[in-house]
């Protein structure tokens, strides 16, 4: 029987593992299949007592255990927006190493959440609906929006954010000024494709018009070092508000908190012709 693995990059925050587990459970109930939540790295550093006594599962030891027990058929559903190095480099390298030790086995990789050039319109809808909910809570309509993500040295990943930004801008209309920002980028002009840092974008907007609120559209799947309570996005926003009297920054819910995300993953699961054998 094929093992279906919902794979994220991994986080050292228990909330991220909890989110992954909830999503796997929801997706499994929707599809009528057992979906196993696994991380590529980091999550094994979380003490089990922060995870209801169940340590997080990493991909490599899980595959080793299953292969040792005779399993030979796996499908990975990537919880990644774009073609991250985790999918294009780390997972293929892991599969190659395991084949030298355990012999041949079948591991297929489904497409990421927003495969270009087709993209994923449902992600645009998620971002727009999260902004609409935020506007209702804030009691104001968005006029300045920043679509912010982790940031990547991979142009293919940055292209996904740009694709979503263009579609979101179309959906919001010309009355909204939409910018992009990242939480991490490498120095130098060679990485300008990655975009400006969030603190730089907030400083620019606050300096020009501090009384107009800024709405952050969060292109993040789960809480972690950047997103969610205690993340550095909250800290950056608080610092910007403190530095500029009158500035208000409103932060949307995460993509992973929207009920349409399991629908996207269920579609990736069904689209077997798009699954790539590693």
UniProtKB/TrEMBL annotation:
<protein>
    <submittedName>
        <fullName>Cobalamin biosynthesis protein CbiX</fullName>
    </submittedName>
</protein>
<keyword id="KW-0456">Lyase</keyword>
<dbReference type="InterPro" id="IPR002762">
    <property type="entry name" value="CbiX-like"/>
</dbReference>
<keyword id="KW-0479">Metal-binding</keyword>
<dbReference type="GO" id="GO:0016829">
    <property type="term" value="F:lyase activity"/>
</dbReference>
<dbReference type="Pfam" id="PF01903">
    <property type="entry name" value="CbiX"/>
</dbReference>
<dbReference type="GO" id="GO:0046872">
    <property type="term" value="F:metal ion binding"/>
</dbReference>
<dbReference type="InterPro" id="IPR050963">
    <property type="entry name" value="Sirohydro_Cobaltochel/CbiX"/>
</dbReference>
């Amino acid at each position: 029987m094929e093992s279906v693995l919902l794979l994220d990059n991994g986080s050292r925050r228990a909330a991220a593992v909890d989110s992954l587990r909830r999503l796997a459970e929801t997706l499994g109930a929707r599809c009528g299949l057992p979906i196993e939540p696994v991380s590529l790295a980091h999550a094994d550093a979380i003490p089990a007592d922060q995870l209801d006594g169940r340590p997080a599962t990493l991909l490599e030891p899980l595959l080793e255990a299953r292969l040792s027990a005779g399993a030979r058929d796996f499908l990975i559903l990537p919880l990644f927006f774009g073609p991250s190095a985790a999918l294009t480099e780390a997972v293929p390298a892991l599969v190659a190493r395991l084949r030298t030790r355990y012999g041949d086995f079948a591991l297929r990789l489904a497409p990421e959440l927003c495969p270009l050039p087709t993209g994923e319109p449902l992600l645009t809808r998620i971002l727009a609906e999260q902004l609409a909910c935020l506007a209702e809570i804030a009691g104001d309509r968005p006029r300045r929006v920043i679509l912010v993500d982790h940031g990547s040295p991979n142009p293919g990943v940055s292209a996904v954010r740009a694709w979503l930004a263009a579609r979101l801008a179309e959906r919001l209309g010309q009355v909204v000024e939409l910018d992009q920002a990242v939480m991490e980028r490498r120095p130098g002009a060679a990485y300008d494709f990655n975009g400006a840092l969030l603190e730089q974008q907030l400083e620019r907007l606050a300096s020009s018009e501090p009384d107009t609120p800024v709405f952050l559209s969060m292109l993040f799947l789960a809480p972690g070092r950047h997103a969610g309570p205690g993340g550095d996005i909250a800290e950056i926003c608080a610092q910007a508000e403190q530095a500029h009297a009158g500035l208000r920054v409103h932060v949307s819910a995460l993509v992973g908190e929207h009920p349409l995300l399991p629908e996207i993953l269920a579609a990736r699961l069904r689209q077997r012709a798009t699954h790539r054998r590693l």
